[in-house]
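Appendix B, Record 12. Input sequence as logged:
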Amino acid sequence: MKGIYTLIIEIKKDVEIKIGSLNKILFKKGTYIYVGSAQNNLKKRILRHLSTEKKIKWHIDYLLKNKNVEVKKVFFKLAKKQEECITARELLKTEIPILKFGCSDCDCKSHLFKVRNLSFIKKLNFREFKK
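Logged structural output:
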């Protein structure tokens, strides 16, 4: 199954985390949304993000391994890869980007955003992922 997904992430307190080549980033306490895609096996990719036992490969892995960071919900939809960047550009209009995060393979400003509320999820036609 091919598609895109969003991870709704709660950061429980302000933390500074080294994110690969981006070096240290200060993440303020709050709710964040990460946009990703999986063009081979969407369910497997989502389950990987939810797992604590994995090799650190992507920017999001550095963030999720921190004890003060928790994935609260996951949403997904069947879509082609370009929909990932379209979604990120939509989020950029209203949410706060963490610059260069998760977008080293495209020209987006970010694929991680600090969010004010999650009402936009319904507008994007995502469904909630259940294990």
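The beta strands are 3-11, 15-18, 24-27, 30-38, 69-78, 96-97, 112-114, 127-128.
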